[in-house]
Amino acid sequence: MQTVANFDRIGEENAFAVLARAGALAAQGMDVINLGIGQPDFPTPENIVEAAVKALRDGQHGYTPATGIPQLREAVSADLHRRFQAEVNPDQVLIVPGGKVTMFTAILMFGEPGAEILYPDPGFPIYRSMIEYTGATPVPIPIREENGFAFSAEETLGLITDKTRLVIVNSPANPCGGVTPKAEIDALVAGLPEHVAIMSDEIYDQMLYDGEEHVTLLGYPEIRNRLILLNGWSKTYAMTGWRLGYSVWPENLYDKARKLAVNAWSCVNAPAQFAALEALTGPQDAVGQMLAEFDARRGLVVDLMNALPGVSCITPKGAFYAFPNVTETGWKAKELASALLEETGVATIGGPDFGVLGEGYIRLSYANSAENIQRAAERMRGFLTKS
Known about the structure:
Layout (H helix, E strand, L loop, with lengths): L13 H14 L5 E2 L11 H12 L12 H15 L8 E4 L2 H12 L5 E6 L3 H10 L2 E6 L10 H6 L5 E7 L11 H10 L5 E5 L25 E6 L12 E4 L2 H14 L5 H12 L3 H22 L14 E2 L10 H12 L1 E2 L1 E2 L11 E4 L4 H17 L1
Parallel strand pairs: 1-10, 3-4, 3-5, 5-6, 6-7
Antiparallel strand pairs: 2-8, 7-8, 9-12, 11-12
Helix pairs in contact: 2-9, 3-9, 4-5, 10-12
C-alpha cells in the first residue's frame, strides 16, 4: 500500500520515545530518574482542577465555538495586557488543543515546495518536522553556546532570501534555556523584510530567572500584521496533559486558522477551557511557587553538571532545561543519553534530537525534585568515571 509522500517526511519528538523507554525499564523493575520529558512535576493547582469539575457538573458537555469560548479569549487578551501592556483583540485569539497546534497551523499556512522557513537549531524538533512535511526547505538558525543560547539577529537576517516565508523564534528557549536579549529582538524586527511572517513561540514566557524580563513580540506594532504568537497553559500552570494552548493571529490570517480548526479539531475540550479561564483569572500564587522551586533546582543542576568529568554547563536564563556540553567525555551525545538510561536509569535527551547543532550536548529537564537531580548526578558521575 502506497502512502502520500509527505507523510514519509514527518519526524517526531524523541522525548516521548525516551519517556516510553523509561516507562518500560521502570516496569521491568529499574529505578528510573526521568530528566528527559519537559513537563512540570507539580500537580495542576487545585483551583484550576475544581473549575473543570464545576464546568462538568454545570453541564458544559457540548461543542464550543471553534475559536474557543468568548470569556476565555477575553481573559487571554486581558492577561497579555496586564503582563505586557499589549493590546490584543479577543477576536484575534484562537484557543487550541496544545502549543504544537499553533506550530502546525502556521507552518502549514506558509510552507510549500519552493518556500523556505527559518527555525532554531537546536530547537523544538517539531518545527523542522512540520516544515519538511509541507515540502518547504528548513533553514536552521544557529543557536550557539557562546551566545548564551540566544539567537543572533544579524545571523538570522543573513539567512533570509526572497524564498523565505516564515521565521520561527523561541525565547525563553527549549532545549537550551536561552533568553534572547531585547537588543537582538529589536534588531531582528527592524531588519525583517516585509514579505516575511514571524511566529514567536513564547510558551515559557513566565519562566525567567536572575531578573530577566520577557520581551514579547506583541510589543512591536510594526510587525503585528504578520506576527503569530504561540503560548498556552502547559508549562506555567503544570497543565501538560490538559492539552491547552492559544495563539494570537494577524487579522488577515485569523479566519484561515479558524477554518483549519473547524476542519481538524472542531473545538477544544469544553471543561478544560473553563479550567484555563480559572488559571488566568484566579490566584497566581502557585506560579510563583513553582518558579522559585525551578530556580533552586537550576542552580543545583548547573553545579552538579559542572562537577562531572568532561562536562561543562552554562547557566540557563529561562525555561526549565539545562543543556550541558558533553564533548570532552568522548561520547557522542545520543549514544551517551542512551547509555545513561539503559545502564544507570537516568533519562536525558541527546542534543541531536533537537537539531544538527545539538551534537555535543544533552538536555536535562530540572522539572524533577532536587533529591532526584542529586541522585541522577551521582549515577552520571559513576558512569562517566568508569567509562
